[in-house]
Amino acid sequence: MNAMRLAQTLASNPFFQFAKLGTVNKNSEEHVQLGFDSFLKNHIGTLHAGALFTAAQADAKVRLLQALALHSHGWKIATYTSRISYKRPAKGPVWIHTAAPTIDFDNRVAHTVSTLNNEANEPLAELHIQFTLLQGEQ
């Protein structure tokens, strides 16, 4: 992902600023990173599930918007459904890897899969999102 585009997206959203989402370079690519701040922790001292979900959703949406921008037909996100599977608690900073979106323009849907990883690159959770797309001024 383009580091400047990612930074602009994160800076443009008040919640992302509040959550202090940042970026980290992994495998020569920029990724969203969620820090291990005290206000993001739950009652047992790990990162709150909602914070993890929000960070992964932000990364998935940015990646899809970048992919849609490559098409000159004015595609937009209308709605989405998602499911997340948590594998283990987040006991430190988390970075997110979202695979390239799968886009089906004929059926007006896109799919993303985001993996949330700890600093040791171990997967902590996986988020699947199905986006419904609109074209043009609809």
Mean pLDDT: 87
C-alpha end-to-end distance: 28 Å
Biggest pleated-sheet summary: 7 strands, antiparallel
Helix content: 25-40%
Strand content: 35-45%
What does this structure look like?
This protein has 138 residues and is α+β, with helices and mostly antiparallel strands. The chain is 25% helix and 38% strand. The chain has 3 helices and 7 strands; from the N terminus they run ααββαβββββ. Strands 1, 2, 3, 4, 5, 6 and 7 form a 7-stranded antiparallel β-sheet that branches. A hairpin with a 2-residue loop joins β1 and β2 (29-34). The longest helix has 21 residues, at 49-69. The protein is globular and about 45 Å long.
What does the secondary structure layout of this molecule look like, with pairings?
Blueprint: H1 3-11, H2 14-18, E1 22-26, E2 29-34, H3 49-69, E3 75-86, E4 94-98, E5 102-104, E6 109-117, E7 123-135
Antiparallel strand pairs: 1-2, 2-4, 3-7, 4-6, 5-6, 6-7
Spell out the key features of this protein.
single chain, 138 residues, 7-stranded antiparallel beta sheet, 25% helix
Short summary of the structure?
By secondary structure, the chain is α+β, with helices and mostly antiparallel strands.
